[in-house]
Amino acid sequence: MATSETDRQSSLTAEDEDSTYDEENDPSAMSLVDHLEELRWRIFKSLIAVVVCSIVAFIFRVWIMNFLEGPLPAQANALHKLGLGGKLVVTGVAEGFTTYLMVSVAVGIVAALPVILYQAWAFISPGLYAHEKRHAVPFIIAGLILFVIGVSVGYVVLRYPIQWLINFGSGNFTELISADSYFSFIAFFMLAFGLVFELPLVLTFMAKVGIISGETLKRKRAAAHIGMWVAATFLTPGADIYSPIILGVSMSLLYELSIIFIRIAVRD
């Protein structure tokens, strides 16, 4: 009897020690200072990735600039008519360097997105439940793929509004397109397409938290498609016919893709 009691006390002591060990090694049990320290290192690693990718992009800056200038017509600048080539114009001593730097950093951020998202995931994952972790990884991967597709579609569409905008003012103005204005325009344009292509993830998240449902999207399908096509005509900066059609088709496909995502991610 005494032996049984001793064994029971020993078992309880071992369980307490295991429990204490688990708590000490549980990431969710870290102090606020530990969390801040980990956050600092996650941000630092993300910045290192951005810097490294930006340096690589700066090394290949000429190829990148030539690629981004692809949608710009060669005869866009008035300099082309004077036989001086169709290069973009810089208006300051340092503008050429700062433009290279700006484009390199922008490309570096996009290239470092997988590392940034991984660091964000590694920081928040210890506080998530198992079912939340199961959905988070596919969401991140799908988000990256959709963003890249959106930026790519934006690049393809870009030539049409640029062509229209240049031709629109050519009768009254002499076009001298600066590097800063051109790259700022295409950066916002392609970023807008990348964000628009995140629509399925936004709608799926809203369905996960109970704001909408797949059945609601199906019932509102006709009105949603009409609204998106109307919005596409206002979102594209030119009056050409191709840009709103491509954007409208893309948004309609993304809407239908959202219904599929919700059906997979949300089990009613």
Give me the secondary-structure topology.
Blueprint: H1 2-25, H2 32-59, H3 61-68, H4 78-81, H5 95-111, H6 113-124, H7 130-169, H8 179-196, H9 199-208, H10 214-219, H11 221-235, H12 242-265
Structure, described:
The chain is mainly α and 268 residues long. The chain has 12 helices and no strands. Helix 7 (130-169) crosses helix 8 (179-196). The radius of gyration is 27 Å and the shape is flat.
Summary keywords:
268 residues; disordered N terminus; flat; 12 helices; single chain
Quick overview:
By secondary structure, the protein is mainly alpha-helical. Helices cover about 75% and strands about 0% of the residues. The chain contains twelve helices and no strands.
Query: Uncertain spans, ≥5 residues at pLDDT below 50?
Result: 1-25
The SSE string, one letter per element, is HHHHHHHHHHHH
Topology, number of strands: 0
Structural class by SSE content:
mainly alpha
Task: Specify the helix fraction band.
Answer: over 70%
